[in-house]
Design goal:
Blueprint lengths: L2 H4 L2 E3 L15 E5 L12 E4 L2 H10 L6 H13 L2 H21 L6 E4 L3 E4 L4 H14 L5
Parallel strand pairs: 2-3
Antiparallel strand pairs: 1-5, 2-4, 4-5
């Protein structure tokens, strides 16, 4: 199956209006940490597996003893500090936003919090696909 055929545009909005084709939508990119995204200037990029990565690092080298592992894990969480805690909270929020949008694959490029292009790692290409779809459907908002 080609990349083009893998692209799936999912309509998540209930309200449909009109939008100018030259209007720049709000763009959010949801990807895995192992994925590279290009042309993302002006887009907000999120790693959907960020929480998993953080928790994996925190659990590295824990002993087999449940009691000792619990003590070490607790000490590691307490040692995160403000920056580490903020990263943990942000990673959890990204998972929440992913669930809110109903995203099922990565990368996913979300336009105006309503429309999704799956499988495209170039934001410029995803925007082109979105605009073509929007123009074909009389402009959406």
């Amino acid at each position: 199956m080609s990349v083009k055929s893998q692209l799936l545009l999912v309509l998540l909005a209930l309200a449909i209006g009109s939008a100018r084709a030259d209007q720049v939508p709000t763009i959010e990119v949801f990807k895995l940490t192992s994925q590279t995204v290009t042309d993302f200037v002006g887009a907000t990029v999120y790693d959907v597996d960020g929480l998993e990565v953080i928790l994996s690092k925190l659990s590295e080298g824990l002993p087999a003893s449940p009691e000792l592992a619990e003590q070490m894990a607790k000490a590691r969480f307490e040692g995160l500090g403000a920056v580490g805690t903020a990263k943990l909270e942000e990673a959890a929020k990204v998972l929440g936003q992913t669930a809110h949008y109903g995203l099922t694959k990565a990368p996913a490029v979300v336009f105006d919090g309503k429309y999704v292009v799956y499988g495209e790692s170039s934001v410029a290409k995803a925007l082109k696909i979105y605009r073509a779809w929007s123009a074909k459907n009389g402009g959406v908002q």
